[in-house]
Amino acid sequence: MDQILSAPAPGTTSGPGFEKCKGLGVAPQRRTPTPQSAHGTGIITLRGSTETVVEFFGYAISSILYQRGVYPAEHFGPVSKYGLSILVTKEESLNKFIGEVLQQLRGWMLSSQVKKLIVVIASQATGQTLERWTFDIQVSEEVADDCALPHTQADKVLEQKQIQAIIRQISASVTWLPLLDEPCSFDLLVYTDKAADVPEAWGESDPKYIVGGSQEVKLRSFTTKIHQVDGSVVYGTTNWELSAQMHAMIGSLCATRISCLAALSRYSF
Predict the structure, then answer these.
(1) What's this model's pTM, rounded to 2 decimal places?
(2) pLDDT by residue (tens digit) across 182-194?
C-alpha cells in the first residue's frame, strides 16, 4: 500500500530532512551532477538515472505552471535544455520551493521508494481539482544500489528525444486543454512506499481526484534503462461542458433575435 504525500507549502520546508535542501530548483544555485557527467563513462547507475529524472521533473513542473497560467508570464524566463527553449520559473521563492521538493524526491528515488509524482492544479476559490498531471515512475527490477548498466551515445540521444517529446506535449497543451479562466493554485503529490521516511513538514494527503466528468490524455514516456517515466494529464470537463452549453445558448438566443428582427423589418413601413 502506497502513501500519498503532499509537499509542504512554500516557506515551510525548514524542518528535519531539509537541512541540505537549499537552492536546488530548475536553476540551481549550487552544482549538482548532470546526466551528461553521470553518464560520461558509458554506463548509467541508479544515482545517475535519478539525477536525469529529477532534473526532468524540474523543467516539466515549471513548463506546466507556465503553460497553464498558474503564475504570471513575467515569473518565467527561457533556458536552453534538451535542444529546446523551455520557460522556467525565475521567481525566487517558487524556485526555492520546487528545488526543495525535488531534493526530497531525489532522496526517496535513490532508495527506489517513489511510485508517482503528481502536479495538481486547483481553483483558488473552491479548492476543486481542475487538472492532475501524473508521472508514473517504474524502476527496473534488475537494479541494485550499486548496479551499473551500459549506456551508449545512442541511448542518450534516444532519451533526449523522448524527453523533448514530453516537453513539447506540455507546451502544446494550451491548444487542447480547456482554458483555466480563474485564479489557480498548485500542489505536488508524491506516492511513496509506506516504509519511506517522511520529513515533519510533509503530510499525508488524499489523491485530490477530479470531481465530476473528466478526460485523460496520455503523454509520451522516456526511459533511462533504470527508470521509466510515463506521463498523463486528467482534466475536468464538467465546467467546460457547462461553459460550452452556455455559449451555445447565448449563440442560439442571438440568432433567434436576429431572425426576429429580420422578420419584423419585412413588415415595417
Answers:
(1) 0.79
(2) 999 999 999 999 9
